UniProtKB/TrEMBL annotation:
Gene Ontology MF, one: phosphoprotein phosphatase activity
Keyword Transferase set for record: yes
Catalytic activity: ATP + protein L-histidine = ADP + protein N-phospho-L-histidine
Record flagged with keyword RNA-binding: no
GO CC annotation: plasma membrane
EC annotation from Swiss-Prot or TrEMBL: 2.7.13.3
Superkingdom of the source species: Bacteria
Organism placement in taxonomy: Bacteria, Pseudomonadati, Bacteroidota, Cytophagia, Cytophagales
Key words of the record: Kinase, Membrane, Phosphoprotein, Transferase, Transmembrane, Transmembrane helix, Two-component regulatory system
Residue ranges the record marks as coiled coil: none
GO biological process, one term: cellular response to phosphate starvation
Domain spans labelled Histidine kinase: 41-259
Residues of the full protein shown: 86 to 357 of 361
Protein name: histidine kinase
Length: 272
């Protein structure tokens, strides 16, 4: 009398093996599609500034431009395209390093309100140009979090500069914090043009822009929010957005509460 049990087990093992292999193949296919699309997107994005710079430089080389003022204007435009290209390549490198896990997070305790003050200082010129008020609520409060300082700085920089870019002139941007249980949530709010519901889910994809030409005009790389998403994932967290067209947007992200520490740079400054 033969017991069927061992056969059943073998059958089940073969089935599981086949299922796993199929899953692996699907994952490889998904990565291949991703890689192909990424290369296509990147080539397309690189072409725009290269094409523009090329046009200006060749026109100048052809010698058709007599007027010195026009010549300078052309050179300035070529330089602007090349600066855009530089930014794009930098962001691409960051994103590819994040996707391959080459960038490791360095966690430490810091005061996110102090970090925000530095970001606001750095963006002051941009905000003034568009006469936008940037307010940090609860100015003297401290909110200690645990995270990668440099990366969270990058997140804040992206969110606040977007808020400034996509808000109407003389608009208002405010940043505030909420502490609950073991978490600190940071909110970046603007009263700008807002984002239509159909685009809301997609703005974190690389190169996705609402109103492509209008957003491109603003000079971004279209990678800012994709980088933000990656950084927050590296913190086992996510970035959220609520938005209403013509009313404004609120971007928010959560971090774990951190231990109180002296200001990051205070130590160096205090050293004799
Ligand atoms: P970009 O470099 O184009 O700013 P991002 O990845 O930072 O790229 O943002 C993607 C798109 O999301 C932007 O092009 C813009 O259309 C939209 N967006 C981002 N932030 C805001 C905001 N605060 N208000 C309205 N639209 C926004």
């Amino acid at each position: 009398k033969i017991s069927l049990n061992p056969l059943k087990r073998i059958n089940r093992d073969i089935y599981t093996y086949a299922e796993n292999k199929q899953r692996e193949i699907q994952e490889l296919k998904r990565m291949e599609t991703f890689r192909r699309e990424f290369i296509a997107d990147v080539s397309h994005e690189l072409k725009t500034p290269i094409f523009a710079a090329q046009g200006f430089v060749h026109t100048l080389l052809d010698g058709a431009v007599e007027d010195k003022k026009v010549r300078t204007k052309f050179l300035k435009k070529a330089a602007k395209s090349l600066d855009g290209l530089d930014l794009l390549v930098h962001d691409l490198l960051t994103i590819s390093q994040m996707e391959t896990g080459e960038i490791k997070m360095h966690f430490e305790n810091f005061d996110i309100a102090a970090l925000t003050k530095e970001v606001i200082d750095q963006l002051e010129g941009k905000a003034e140009k568009r006469r936008i008020t940037v307010t940090l609520e609860g100015k003297n409060e401290q909110h200690f979090v645990k995270g990668d300082y440099q990366r969270i700085y990058q997140v804040m920089m992206n969110l606040v500069s977007n808020a400034i870019k996509y808000t109407r002139k003389e608009g208002e941007v405010s940043i505030y914090f909420e502490e609950r249980n073991n978490e600190v949530t940071t909110f970046v709010k603007d009263n700008g043009r807002g984002i239509p519901p159909k685009d809301l889910k997609r703005i974190f994809e690389r190169f996705y822009r609402v109103e492509k030409s209008r957003s491109k005009e603003k000079g971004g790389t279209g990678l800012g929010l994709a980088i933000v998403k990656h950084i927050m994932e590296g913190h086992d967290s996510s970035v959220n957005v609520e938005s209403e067209v013509d009313v404004g947007s609120i971007f928010s992200f959560k971090l774990k509460k951190g231990k109180p520490v002296a200001h990051r740079f205070a130590e160096e400054e205090d050293e004799e």
